[in-house]
Amino acid sequence: MIERVSCAVCEKAWPPDDHYIGDLGLTKAYLFEDQFFAGWTVLILKEHRTELFELTREERMGLVEEVSRVGEVMAKIFEVRKINSELLGNQTPHIHWHVIPRLMSDPEPLMPVWSVLHEPAYLSPDVLKERLSLFRRSLGIS
Ligand SMILES: [Zn+2]
Question: What's the whole-model pTM score?
Answer without folding.
Answer: 0.94
